[in-house]
Amino acid sequence: MMTNLGPELTQAADAMIRDVLLVQSGETVLITADTASDMQTVEAIQNAARNLDTPVALLIAPQLPFQGALGDPYISDPVRAAVTNCDVWIDLAFPYMAGSQAFDVAMQNKRTRYYLAAGLNAESTIRLFGKVNLDTLFTVTQAFDALLVEKKGAQGRITNPVGTDVTFTIGEPMAMGTGRANGPGALFVPGTVMIMPKEDSVKGVVKFDTVFHEYYTPLEEPISLTIDGTVQDVSGGVAEGTVLERSLRRASGEGLGYIIHFTCGIHPAARYTGNCFLEDQRVLGYNAVGLGLPFWMPGGGENHPDAVLSKQSLWLDGEQIVKDGLIVGPPDLAELAQDLQPLYR
Questions:
Q1: How far is CA 24 from CA 54, 84, 135, in A?
Q2: Same-domain check for residues 220 and 105
Q3: Most buried by CB count within 10 Å: which residue of 76, 78, 210, 226?
């Protein structure tokens, strides 16, 4: 447990506002939080924005029962109005509003940059923004993204010690926007890369011990998904397996849906705690596997569960890129990754 969080949290929140979101004096900043948010983090981010002499508004609402479009009936009119009338929207609510109608309208205004910071607490904020050289992290992220562009159409494979062994064809790359803000649109916390499969090419087993279905939770027993183009079967997980299957059917309309994305955590200071979805998936070698329907399919993307698996190994086109969570290839990427060290003071 960290102690004396005040100065470090102030520095980390300032890095988020100044170095990542690039907030300028006079821009309007909106922070959305919920009744389960960590108020110490909310206040630190609010103060960091106010220090730039910029208008700041904070809206705290009851915690949404679902993420994305399923949360639409629970998003109030004042929140809907506010998110379309700001330059920077920092969403600390969890479940989050990305994928909701309110989010879609805000993204159409070509003004707002949205930051999905859902569920960050003081310690996760310090580690993700204050315990790493962000320039180095962004450089490694860009190099990994470039590799995925190069390997489009090749075969990928992911395994982990729990029992995951899945193959897929590498699809059209989709950068997650995990660098610095470069204009309106969605932006994500740094420390992970997105690996997009061709959805009907995924075959094998994905087995994991943490899940975000209707809520985020570690599992008493791992859940196993059997995949042959689509998810064929959900097993294990005790009661949580039933909740995941229910969530998959809700997100997919018919059947159990697809693997929408894989990810690879590359943040050297991120720590797995089981209580912060955004930080856990950024731990070295952790993988947030998106489930349900891709956004380009009718009814897709508005809400999808995520399975979080640990200590993955990754191959692209037969070359091992990640071994038990550590980047080992190709040589130029592995060399860059050597510079990724946590900054502990």
A1: 7, 18, 20
A2: no
A3: 210
Q: How far apart are CA 243 and CA 215, in angstroms?
A: 10
pTM: 0.95
Q: Per-residue pLDDT tens for 247-302? A: 999 988 889 999 999 999 999 999 999 999 999 999 999 999 999 988 777 666 66
Query: Which CATH number is 66's domain given?
Result: 3.40.1830.10
Number of neighbouring beta carbons within 10 Å of residue 136: 16
125 shares its domain with 156: no
pLDDT at 245 over 90: yes
Those residues with Cβ within 8 angstroms of residue 186's Cβ, 6 or more apart along the chain or in another chain: 98, 107, 113, 114, 116, 177
CB atoms within 10 A of CB 88: 25
145 and 276 within one domain:
yes
Helix (H, G, I), strand (E, B) or coil at 85: coil
String of DSSP letters for 120-161: --HHHHHHHHHSS-HHHHHHHHHHHHHHHHHTTTSEEEEE-T
Peptide bond before residue 62 is cis, with ω within 30 degrees of 0 = no
Total domains in the fold of the chain: 2
Give the single-character DSSP code of 15: I
What tokens appear for 304 in the block?
């999808």
Between 70 and 174, residue with greater pLDDT: 70
Residue 275's domain comprises: 134-173+190-337
Q: Of 157, 172, 322, 295, nearest to 227 (Cα)?
A: 157
Element (H, E) at 242: helix 239-252
Residue 274 shares a structural domain with residue 240 = yes
**pLDDT tens for each residue of 100-112:** 999 999 999 999 9
Q: Is pLDDT at 174 greater than 90 in this prediction?
A: no
**Alpha carbon of 77 to those of 59, 74, 156: distances in Å?**
12, 10, 44
- Say if residue 113 is in the same domain as residue 215: no
What's the order of all strands across the beta sheet hosting 29-34? Answer: 56-61, 29-34, 88-91, 113-116, 185-188
